[in-house]
Design brief:
This protein is an alpha/beta fold. The strands form 2 sheets. A 7-stranded mixed sheet has the order 1-9-8-7-2-6-3. Helix 3 packs across helix 4. The radius of gyration is 20 Å and the shape is globular.
């Protein structure tokens, strides 16, 4: 389909990489090693071809928004303080959106215009397991009804309004539950919010009469995309990597999976994908893709093949 007939401009990898426009590489191999997710193959070429041009685009957007803010302040004759630029990153489980978020944070905070960049995941706003068990929602973790959406919206609203210090709950993937920890966010220049539900709106929460959502506070949004079969493969591979690593910890909620044979573990992972994550993708996550300002379409090895930017 022609770009003229869609709301997006489409760029193949080569065309997109040319938009880097001499932006310097500010990360080295040691940085990438810290940023890689489980079972992902993040390369320096991927950063140079895809994420440096993206950081350049985001930097331009942030500067443009600051310009508009200055116009409003001039018009009103008063300063509104530091209003952060909020970026949402959405996509399926196992697509690599957490790595994308960490990488963009690392790149953006190296731009001289906005050194303070914070990253929050919406996992911290899941209801505690005690609540999910009571509501029979443990097998629907990540579905819209499993989130404390009011608390999430309140958090983003407080940060966006310039509140000096805002606390976010912290989720542990080890114990598979909310912890007693909190993350403090203090007036960042940019806030990145990453999660399954960041592009969802009122129509996705018919059970909740709340009518303001995270998407209402986003200045820019990114959807990390891949074909369903690839996502399933990546999920199973990631599950097996966790089984060899984090699941070995006796404190892990999923420690019992280490007792399974290799094939039993693979079958279990495939079952979890079909019953929970794949279903959530089709019903609740994928329908939000076209709300994004930019779509990263991945192919094999998590490499981005196409970038679509909303006109």
């Amino acid at each position: 389909m022609s770009d003229l007939l869609t709301p997006y401009l489409s760029f193949d990898r080569k065309k997109w990489s040319e938009l880097r426009d001499a932006v310097p590489m500010t990360l080295d191999e040691a940085d990438l090693e810290k940023l890689r997710g489980i079972n992902e193959h993040l390369t320096m070429d991927e950063v140079q071809d895809i994420y440096l041009p993206l950081s350049r685009l985001l930097n331009l957007y942030v500067k443009a928004r600051k310009g508009r803010t200055q116009v409003l302040e001039h018009f009103l004759g008063e300063k509104n303080g530091n209003v952060p630029y909020v970026i949402g990153i959405a996509g399926s489980v196992a697509v690599g959106k957490s790595t994308t978020a960490r990488l963009l944070k690392a790149l953006l905070e190296r731009w001289p215009e906005h050194p303070k960049v914070e990253l929050i995941t919406t996992d911290g706003f899941l209801h505690p397991n005690e609540v999910l068990n009571k509501r029979n929602l443990m097998k629907k973790k990540g579905f819209p009804e499993s989130y404390d959406i009011r608390r999430l919206v309140e958090f983003v609203s407080d940060v966006k309004s310039g509140k000096p210090r805002v606390e976010a709950p912290v989720y542990s993937h080890l114990v598979y539950d909310i912890t007693d920890e909190v993350k403090e966010v203090e007036q960042p220049d940019i806030l990145i919010v990453e999660g399954l539900n960041v592009l969802q709106s009122g129509m996705d929460y018919p059970h909740d009469p709340h009518r303001v959502f995270i998407s209402d506070f986003l200045d820019f949004s990114i959807y990390v995309d891949a074909e369903g079969e690839l996502l399933k493969t990546w999920y199973i591979e990631r599950f097996m990597a966790f089984r060899r690593g984090a699941f070995q910890n006796p404190s892990s909620y999923f420690h019992h999976y280490t007792l399974l044979s290799e094939q039993e573990a693979r079958n279990t992972a495939a079952g979890i994908w079909e019953e929970i994550n794949g279903k959530n993708l089709v019903e609740n996550i994928l329908p939000t893709r076209e709300r994004a300002g930019l779509i990263l379409q991945k192919g094999n090895n998590h490499a981005v093949q196409t970038v679509k930017v909303r006109k």
